[in-house]
Amino acid sequence: MRYFFVAIIFLLLPQLRGVCQAVKVKQSRFFNITEIGYGNGIGKINFEKIGYKIENESHFVRVRTEFGYFITKKLSLGLGFGLDGYHDYTFNTAPLFVDTRFYFKTQPQTFFVFSNIGYAIPLAGNFEKGFIGGVSFGRKISMRRVILLPSIGINLQRLNDIGYYSFGQNQAGSYSDNITNTSLQFNLGLLF
Question: 5 vs 63, 82, 165, 167, 172, CA distance in Å?
Fold first, then answer.
């Protein structure tokens, strides 16, 4: 399942190319993007207070929605909210974020880049809110009445005062620390 979204994105792109070339979808200045996503941890998770790093074996699944406005035909700004469920370092967050997207062309089929920044609100009591951010690259694919937005990028998640247990030689205990988690993210969005 880890590469499920990657397979979907790269399998859909060549097959949809011929179907989508002559399609014109009228796009409003106001929009909604609803997306699902998957992220796989990369690098190490950094525990700041104790200066310790562990291999990042975490992964997440997400559902997000964003409401925005096209400032120009190529540039949009939006406000979003979602649910992110992290596993193999288990925590759940409700991210609230601002999203900026730049589409390279005004055509129905074009590439885009986007970034988002905001806060992850905890859905459990074992940590305080933390910073979230991300940068991604994707493709806008217009099909009859729907616009697909597959993308790939980097997701950064910082959690403050997260509680954890440590069991080592001659010591065991409950601690809290600030952690930073970096993931490679794959998203599939629908633009309405």
Answer: 13, 18, 33, 36, 40
Burial class of residue 116 in the structure, from the number of CB atoms within 10 Å of its CB (0-12 exposed, 13-18 middle, 19+ buried): buried
Distances (CA, A) of 48 to 17, 42, 160: 46, 17, 10
What does the pLDDT average to over 19-42? 79
How many other CB atoms are found less than 10 A from the CB of residue 128? 14
Q: Is the pTM of this model over 0.70?
A: yes
Residue 157 predicted with pLDDT over 70: yes
Minimal CA–CA distance to 129: which of 80, 96, 88? 96
Find, among 73, 129, 123, the residue nearest to 102 by Cα: 73
For residue 21, tell me if it sits in a domain. no
Q: Is 131 helix (H, G, I), strand (E, B) or coil?
A: strand
The tally of domains found in the chain comes to: 1
User: How many Cβ atoms from other residues are within 10 Å of residue 185's Cβ?
Assistant: 21
Q: Look up the CATH number of the domain holding residue 112.
A: 2.40.160.20
Q: How confident is the model at residue 22 (pLDDT cuts 50, 70, 90)?
A: very low
**Would you state the pLDDT for residue 31?**
95
Asked if 86 and 181 touch (Cβ cutoff 8 Å), the reply is yes
Residue 104 per-residue DSSP state: S
**Residue 16 included in any domain:** no
